Structures are given as C-alpha cells and as structure tokens.
C-alpha cells in the first residue's frame, strides 16, 4: 500500500498512472479521463482530470498527453471526460472549426440564406444554400423549410438568397401563377385578347369591351377607332370593332368614352 504493490518477496513502487492505498497489495490504474505523472502515488487523488475541452479513453495514463481535444464541431464544458462521446456537438444550424473548445460560444450560426440539419458541423460549407426560387432571412436555421418560396408572379436564380428582394417580378405583359420559381422563362406571355399593365401578376386581364389586341405579351389593349365599338371583353381582332351610330354609340362605344371609362390612357 501507500504507493507500493507487493510480490512474493518485495514491495514494488507503483508507476506513473497508477496508485495504491493503505493495505492494498496491487497498483490501481487511474480511470479514463484522468492521468498521473507521479510514481509511488498513495491515493487516487493524484490522478488529475483531463481539462475542459479534452477527453481520454486510456486507463492508467502517465501523461496529460493522453487527453485528446474534443473534435471540431464540438465542445467540452467539464473536466474528466473518458470518451469523445461526452463532447457536446454544436447544434444543427451552427458549426465550429476549433478543436478543444470549452463552450458552445465557439459554434457559429449559419448565415441567412443557408441552413444545416446536421449536428456537430465542423465547417461553414456544411451550411447549405437555399435553392433558387427561395430565400431566408433567418440565421442559424436547422431546417430547409426556413427557405421561403418566392411569391406568385416572381422568380429568382440566386442560390443562398437572404431577402425576398432577390425575387424578381415578371415583366408587364406576362403572368406567373406559382410560387418558388427559379427562371424568368416561367413568366408566361399574355395571350391575344388579354393584357397586363403591371409587373408580378398571377393572371392577365381580358381586354375590356371597346378594345382588342392580337399580340402576345401585351401590356395594353388597342382602342376601337371612333365610331366603332365591340360588344364583349377579350377580343383578339380589330374586326371585332363594328360600326355604330346614334347616341348610344357616342355614349358607350366611341374610342374616347372607352378610354375614359376603362382608364386605358
């Protein structure tokens, strides 16, 4: 005991990394997560714990060199870890490239426009970009669902977009009825008989009575000339404008009255 073990004839001093108490005939190894540089130790108290941010699975370690750093993407806030599994992983949505960290303060959040569902990430490249047609202003997101689809009437080719302003509106004369679109080619031209004066719309409007258009992607309708009118909305041909006469034609069918009523100029 008291730092020594006995064999059949002699007392043998316990080596570094072990100890022997009063009355003991054997040297006991320091447990995992600890080490001792002292020879002839008479108490387990001489076994020092591995410091914060480190761990050791070795029993009877004679040197602090057996204490290995918690890997990048993790941290250790207590002493005496006997396994790497005791190092706490940075949560999903964060990452750390530092080894031997002692607190979660080293875990950096993924930037806006990115997300990561993986615990223990060791590099910012583990933060995945929101796909084109989506965006996210949230930092440290752990779910792809944080990437919000661009609204109807818009599109975006940007990877990792951090703001809705990256979603560009479809031009006048086109429409787009779905969310989350990634290419300008999804903007559908208005067909003849319909138009759109605004950008970023989800549908084209029919040309009102008294107007027409034979064009695709029209941003305005053509006016029936004075003395003619059309009976219905959505007309595609100028021939839909028919001659009229009398007070009803002047009141409702003339080009000037149509302009005033429909607000087309």
Model description:
The chain has helices at residues 247-253, 255-262; strands at residues 4-6, 11-13, 18-19, 28-29, 34-35, 48-49, 54-55, 68-69, 74-75, 88-89, 94-95, 108-109, 114-115, 128-129, 134-135, 148-149, 154-155, 168-169, 174-175, 188-189, 194-195, 205-206, 211-212, 222-223, 228-229, 242-243. The protein has 265 residues and is mainly β. Helix 1 (247-253) packs parallel to helix 2. The longest helix is centred in the last third of the chain and has 8 residues, at 255-262. The model is unreliable at 251-265 (pLDDT under 50).
Short summary:
With 265 residues, the protein is mostly beta strands. The protein has helices at residues 247-253, 255-262, and strands spanning 4-6, 11-13, 18-19, 28-29, 34-35, 48-49, 54-55, 68-69, 74-75, 88-89, 94-95, 108-109, 114-115, 128-129, 134-135, 148-149, 154-155, 168-169, 174-175, 188-189, 194-195, 205-206, 211-212, 222-223, 228-229, 242-243.
């Amino acid at each position: 005991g008291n730092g020594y073990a006995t064999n059949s004839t002699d007392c043998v001093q316990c080596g570094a990394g072990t100890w022997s108490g009063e009355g003991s005939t054997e040297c006991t190894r320091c447990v995992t997560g600890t080490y001792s540089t002292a020879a002839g130790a008479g108490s387990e108290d001489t076994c020092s714990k591995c410091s914060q941010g480190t761990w050791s699975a070795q029993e009877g370690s004679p040197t602090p060199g057996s204490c290995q750093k918690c890997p990048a993407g993790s941290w250790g806030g207590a002493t005496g870890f006997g396994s790497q599994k005791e190092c706490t992983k940075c949560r999903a949505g964060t990452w750390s490239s530092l080894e031997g960290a002692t607190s979660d303060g080293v875990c950096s959040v993924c930037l806006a426009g990115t997300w990561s569902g993986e615990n223990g990430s060791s590099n910012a490249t583990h933060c995945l970009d929101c796909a084109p047609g989506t965006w996210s202003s949230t930092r440290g997101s752990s779910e792809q669902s944080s990437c919000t689809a661009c609204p109807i009437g818009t599109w975006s080719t940007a990877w990792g977009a951090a703001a809705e302003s990256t979603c560009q509106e479809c031009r006048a004369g086109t429409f787009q009825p779905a969310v989350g679109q990634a290419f300008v080619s999804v903007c559908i031209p208005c067909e003849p008989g319909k138009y759109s004066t605004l950008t970023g719309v989800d549908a084209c409007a029919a040309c009102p009575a008294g107007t027409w258009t034979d064009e695709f992607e029209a941003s305005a309708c053509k006016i029936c000339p004075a003395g003619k009118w059309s009976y219905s909305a959505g007309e595609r041909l100028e021939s839909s404008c028919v001659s009229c006469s009398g007070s009803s034609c002047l009141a409702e069918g003339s080009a000037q009255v149509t302009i005033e009523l429909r607000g087309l100029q």
